[in-house]
């Protein structure tokens, strides 16, 4: 039989199958159009591609070629909105600490707050069902009346050891933050850096900069020092990686 070789294994004959509408020599044009404006729709990309008099392809062909090249449509990645001042403060932080050694960075205790949704319902989950099956267990998603059933946590860690995790019962205000600092952060810094050479990464939220909080830190400058990250710069805080691991484990 044709298509079966001597080793009884199937093989595809050379040249069998429909040829590609977009030849290899012209496929390079699509990535270039996408890079010019990644937010273009398939219809817009098709119109631009067909602007060449020698080209005439359908939207379906463009869509299939984009997928074949790995140029899938994805949601934009959310990032903080940065102003000119934010950029300047980031640059200032980098210049101030560009000569720090690894041993100096090991003396920093990083901290941050993060909210976790216990029952996460974001509206993007879909099910396929027949009419009347909307209340079947396989077609429902449990959630709380307030929407998420979330919990706010504040954590600390350093190169030496993970620090305490505090549950924030209510909205984080200056008094709540000061209680966490005095009851949990202070003993942690004294244990990890007993010689007083520790450095605590301080946040920029309004509760972090309250007068009673700053006065408390001023009274304990002989026990540890402060370092501040610029506003709207969560990715400069490695504590975000720990939150990410916890979030993925929660969703697993």
From TrEMBL:
Gene3D superfamilies: Ribonuclease H-like superfamily/Ribonuclease H. It holds the Pfam family DDE_3. It comes from the Eukaryota. This is Transposable element Tc1 transposase. GO terms for molecular function: DNA binding. Residues 108-251 form the Tc1-like transposase DDE domain. GO terms for biological process: DNA integration; DNA transposition. InterPro entries: RNaseH_sf, Tc1-like_DDE_dom, Transposase_5, Transposase_Tc1-like. Residues 30-99 form the Transposase Tc1-like domain.
